[in-house]
Amino acid sequence: MKPNTFACLMYHFVQENGGQYSVTRSQLHEQLSYLQQQGFVVEDFEQLEQRIRACDPLPGRYALMTIDDGESSCSLIADALSRYGFRATFFVIRDFARKANGYLSEQEIVELRRAGFSIGTHGTSHRGLSRMPLATARQELKESREWLEQLLGEQVRYMSAPHGYVNRNVIASIFQAGYGLAGTSTEAVNVLDGLSLPAQIARVAVRRNFTLETLEKIVSGHKPFYSYRRIRSAAFAIPKRLFA
Ligand SMILES: [Zn+2]
């Protein structure tokens, strides 16, 4: 990894027989243990924002950790992260948290914050922000933030785009809504020197079929891995555009 560059990991949930965006409990432990053994400093959006403000250089081995959706197994993920001394930002969805059926309840979100993790919004409804009228997207950004600020009793500075759906107008709206860091699903290495607030953070979703070797490529900025992912996502974008 070049100095002052870093990968941001995106997890969703832990399940023994889940889909491609889930990992098993043992995969999670294997991956966290790998990061620890390799000497990675694993931080959250809050710590990164402080580094950007202070113009602090990054440790040699550095990764950001994020968890999207606020599914129930987030408590288990939080416990595991604490055990390894890692922080993370959890992105929660207002309407899912209110129903709390299979998702963290509002109270559990407050407890997560008290445990030292940072919390960001992930929409009110989890619909893709670039797939709705811009006015509706702006409303989602505003309402999810107001909800979470009221719940936590503090300013909310972070969000992640549901399903990674963003465009130029949505990004501008995210920053206008007062968010300082926005997590996307663009699979790329982030360069700290190019970052000023507000900023987008490229993230790689950790899939179930990723091996420890894949994780190593992600966090070490392995160029062929990222090129392959870029080509792959461009290929997938064609049918998305045709049939959306
Ligand atoms: Zn999501």
How would you sum up this structure, described in words?
- This protein is an alpha/beta fold and 244 residues long.
- It has nine helices and twelve strands.
- Helix 6 packs parallel to helix 7 (168-176).
- The protein is globular and about 40 Å long.
- Bound molecules: zinc ion.
Key words describing this protein structure:
244 residues; alpha/beta; 3-stranded parallel β-sheet; 9 helices; 12 strands; globular; binds zinc ion
Task: Write a brief caption for the model.
Helices cover 43% and strands 18% of the residues. By secondary structure, it is an alpha/beta fold.
Helix content: 40-55%
* Total strand segments: 12
Bound molecules: zinc ion
How would a textbook summarize the main sheet? 7 strands, mixed
State Rg.
17 Å
The SSE string, one letter per element, is EEEHEHEHEHHEHEHEEEEHH
- Note the quaternary state here: single chain
On the 0-100 scale, what is the average pLDDT? 95
